[in-house]
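A student in our group prepared the protein record below, which I am reviewing. I have pasted the whole thing underneath without changing anything:
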Amino acid sequence: MIKNYLIALTSSLLLLPLSVFAAGYGSAGCGLGSMVMGSGDGIGQVFAATTNGTSGSQTFGITSGTSNCDEGGLIKSSKEREVFATENFTSLIKEMAQGRGENLHTLASLYQCQAGAHQEFGSMVQEKFDQLIASEQTTPIELLNHLEAQLDQHPSLSKSCSYS
């Protein structure tokens, strides 16, 4: 009996990594880290796992079906953007003023902007900063509404980013 149990356990442990890689993300699993670092091997997966762990995006992604996790989630991508903007609002504003940064890169990913458009996304938010942050009382939701209006009007980002 114990021998059969050990054989079954060993077999399942050997097959587990295959199912992870078949899902389209690396050994760090799904989450924002997998979106930023991809599914490659090596040290990149350490950074992906760290990003997933520190941001809580993996747990949220599994629950909501976003961030490269299973599509069967309960929460829309727009809600994920709202949560992300609310949790990272201060840092996000600073990075928007600079036109670059990890949180800004993540926000571009949440808007499903193609990787090649992330720099242009940063330049656009830096250029339109005063319109995005209209006052000191601007809320994260208002920021996202203003950002979506700017994305709609932008000639190339309106095509390379997808959000609904």
